[in-house]
Every structure is written in C-alpha cells, then in structure tokens.
Amino acid sequence: MNSSKHTELANHAWSVADLLRGDYKQSDYGKVILPFTVLRRLECVLEPTRQKVAEEVARFEDQDIDTDHFLRRASGHSFYNKSDLTLKKIAADPQNTAQLLQIYVAGFSDNAREVLDKYEFAQQIRKLDDADLLYKVIGKFTDLDLHPEKVPNHNMGYIFEELIRRFAEQSNETAGEHFTPREVIKLMVNLLIAPDGDALSLPGVVRTVMDPACGTGGMLSAAEEHIRAYNEDATVEVYGQELNPESWAICRSDLMIKGQDPENIAYGNSFSDDGHKREKFDYLLANPPFGVEWKKVKEAVEYEHEHLGEAGRFAAGLPRINDGSLLFLQHMISKMKPVDVHGGGGSRIAIVFNGSPLFTGAAGSGESEIRRWILENDWLEAIVALPDQLFYNTGISTYFWILTNRKAPDHKGRVVLLDARDQWQKMRKSLGDKRKELGKQHIADVTRLYGEAIGAAADPEHPLHGKVKVFDNEAFGYQRVTVERPLKLRFEVTEETLTALAAAKPVQKLADADAFVSAVRTLTGSSWATKSEALIALKDAVVAAGLLWPAGAPFAKAVRDMVGVRDPEGEVQLVRGESEPDGELRDYENVPLGEDVEEYLKREVHPHVPDAWIDHTKTKVGYEIPFTRHFYVYEPPRPLAEIDAELKALEAEIQGLLSEVAE
Questions:
Q1: pLDDT above 50 for 460
Q2: Which of 74, 112, 178, 540 could be bridged to 247 by S-S, CB 3.0 to 4.6 A?
C-alpha cells in the first residue's frame, strides 16, 4: 500500500470532523475519531471468525466457566466480541443507536473494552447521541474498509499514527505531553540502533523495545519501523507504560491494530507501579516530561531507595522533588540486559532531557550521585545537543543521552559530546513552541557524525572536528573541597558589643545578668589585642563589682564571641592548638578528579591567601557535564571605532529623514 492510500484512508476517518464541527471543539475531534477508528479496525479484523466465536459462545452459554481462553482461540486474536451486532446493523436503527452501540462495546473482551473505556467512549456515545450525530458518525465509519487483506497491520499503523499526528496538531496546547515530533524520534532511534545494524540484519533476529513514558507510542512505532528497515523478517516486540489514560488507550490501540500484544502496554506510574518488573529489554527509549515533580509517588520511591538498595531501581540517589527526569533514567538502566562472558547481551538506552540533569545538584546531591554512578559504571556513551524550539510545548534546548552496558572498544571509558544545535531548518508554520525541525539531511549528517565521533574528535582536519569532543569519564568528576581560613579577632567593649553580650543566652541565664553587664560596661572604650588579655580584664571588672566569674569553657567562648571583632590583623584563634576556621571566610573550590588537592591549594589559593588550608573531612566527589562550556567559542567585542562609525551613519540618516519631513 502506498502513502497516498494511507492518506486517503486517514482523510476518510478524519472527515468525521465535518460532522463534529460546532458540537465539539477542534482539539476534541480526536476523542471521537480515534476510538471509532479502533472500533472499526477491530470489527474488520474479527469479521472472518465471528461465526466461530458465536458458536463457542453458544456452546458454553449455560456453563459456569471462564470462556476467555476458548473465545480468544476461536477469534484467532488476543481479543474478541461476543455480540452478533455490527456497526452497519447499529447505524440502520437510528432510534436505538446509543443503546445498541453500548451493547456492542460490552461484548468485547476485557482488554479491548478497557481501551475504549480509557477513551471515555461511553461519554462520547452520550454526547454524540444528544447532538443527534451518533448514527451519522457510525455511518461514516461503516464505509471505511479496514479489513486486514486490504490494510495490513503495518499499514494500519501508519494510518493510525497519521490520525494521532493530526489530533496532536489540533490540540497544540497539550501536544508535547503525548507527542514527540516525528523527525526527533527518527534521529533518536538512529543513534540508538545504528551501531547494531549488522546484528539486526541476521535471519530470525528478535528484539525487544521498551518506553517507560510511551505516550501514544510514537517512539515504539519508529523503533519497530527502523529495525524492520534492516530486516523485514525481524521480530520486534514493543513494551511500554503510560500514566495518562487517553495516551495509554491510543498506544494500546496502536498495538492491537498492528497485531502486537496490547498487554505489553502497562497503565500506571512507572515509579510506584512498575508494569514490567524483572523484565529486561534490548532497547529502551523515552521522552519523559521535563521538570515534573514526583511528589505523588515520593513515599514509594523513597521506600525503594532506603530499603531495597541495589535490589531496587533507585539505589544511586534521588533527585530533587521537582524534577523526576533522572528517576526515569535509573528505571531504564534497571531494565538493561546483562552482558554475558562472551560480550553478548546488553542493552542500549536513549532518553531526551533538558539541560538540568547535566549539571543540577552540587557534589553529594542526589543528581550528582546518579551521574557519578552512571559514569563510574561506564554506561554513558554520548550526549547530543539538539536545536532549541524543536518541541511543541517548550522552546528550551534539549539533549539526547545515549547509554549502553556494551560499549564498543574505542568508546570504553570515554564519553562523546556532539553539538548538533545548528542542525535545523525553519518550519513553514509554527506548531505551539515548535518553530524548527530537523530535515532529512540534518538527520543523516548527525547520524553519520555520531558514527565517526571518535575519529572526528581526534582529527583536526575533519570538517566537523569542532562539533564533537571526546572525554574520559573521569573528566566530568571533581572534588568539592572546603577551603578554610583562620578566625582572627581583636577584642573591644563598645555599645554594640555590650548589646550583643546582654543578648547572649549564657549571660541571660546568670542570676545577676544585669549586674554582670553593668560591670563589663565600665570597660567601654577599652580594646585588647589578645583573647587572654581581654578575658583577664573582663574577669577583673566583674570581680571588682563583687560578682563571681562563671566557670566553664562554653561561657568563656560566648563572651569571646560577643566582644571579639573580626580583624585581618587580629589574633588567630586556636582550638586544641589548631587554628579555628572562620565560617564567614569559608570558601569552596572544585578540583578536577585525580588532581592533588594540596598542590591545587598551593598553586591557586596560597598566592592570594597564604594562611588557607583544606578541611579534608568535608571533601565530596561530584560529577557534572558542562556541555556548553566545552563548546564555547569566544567572540571578541566589535572595535569601538566600528561602533562609532555605525552610530554616526545612523545619525546622518536620521538627520536626512528629518530634513525631508521639514521640507
């Protein structure tokens, strides 16, 4: 079947929109057209075995047994319908259309009926019936020939995807939530699968593909299509999970329509209710929502992190509550197939992120620990920067992360950074925030450069040498060191220090606190260079007033803190013979992983502050991937003479225009 036939059938289904206009918002057309397309396809698929199913229904009519297995076997599919109704019969009875259609839908097997329920099909039936449109819509679909001999499963997939695309375009405000641009998926799947081209062309090859945030299934369809491009006889099994009920229904419908097992698409939250526990896959890909909080599943995720450890998915760490992106990645990594002793097995992962997971989170944070875990296990193969304004619901920059546990020998211990931000063309018509798209040539060029990345980075003569860089895994690690400087104080009694002394808790607890402060007040205007001199003078004043000086180091420290004033030339304060650090002068430095921090201190810090030292007990290891920094190209400012000349030219032009107006 050629593409024009796909379009013709999709146009026929979408022509129902003419009937809906006025009673439905444009963005809601798909809520009618998609489930009716599914219903018509299921009817056409089941038609050859309707009689066999009817005979099985009659055979078990009065028996109290589960007939599901027998009816599936009779239908020859994973679904069936027990009713003797058809859409044509229902359309022929306009007075009872709604009632008959509900009976017809109720006759489907649970898995098919569940899909229609998620479309809120019963609600659409009532709405169409109230508008006196139901029998007209059904009539339109009875004319749509979707029998498998005319429209094979693969071609039906194209038609349904075209309807999904139109639905997404009509509802721009939510398109990005369940629809990733086709050309972005194409590039993503290329980078995910291209290195395995030879293996995929082998006879009898079987591959499993999984998307834990599958939306309407666009990525799964593209991956399946791409694998079949290498080998038409390949067996491709797709799996997914989706939280949005409507998107889940669309994806599951797509699988039913293509003859795949719809049970492979789980419904629910991937974090709290993993629909594919203990399962492993060859390829995993996802475009999870950006910056979406995971507060609703916080309890389940934290329990798994704290109690299951390495046996769970989130042992590496938990990101901040307002962005669950790195939870999706950990979830996907948990589903990679292990690599056997001969180097076989293993998996590849591709995921779309915004810039946040590259660098958000300081050393020791959940995000940094997750990046550390990934890099230290040598799973990150590459990060590809994409143009901005590629997606429907956001104009921000995005990145592909490509991971695998079976890196090629020349990739081991290394990460490729590929800058594809200039690979785009302007769209003829914007769709939401999407103003740019990847052309076929852009996709081909980026795919080719990805395959040549190691060589291109090493060859200064390569035409795209500046667009790709390769780093050792450790290059993204750093040591977060705490640089301390000594606390230096001079000591004085002023109105300010007296106020602070009176407010200090150890002083307020004294039975004669006011008398104590009054005794110290007699020293107003006095100052001392050392702590010992100050304390002796204070004690003498207190004793002279007939009071006892309270014993204990905590009290003495409190008094010191109140009358001590920071002074670069002051006395260095000691604790057990060691310099006491000044919290206000504390600083932090990021030292590359593997570099001697003491050597760094001597080279970078001591020339400016010779008395600084590193508190090694506070050192943390962190990981970040500063992508844009590695591709930054300095552009010198324009010469002042050039700017001045341009201003003078503009001034002359304005004067000329004004003189024309004056004339």
A1: yes
A2: 178
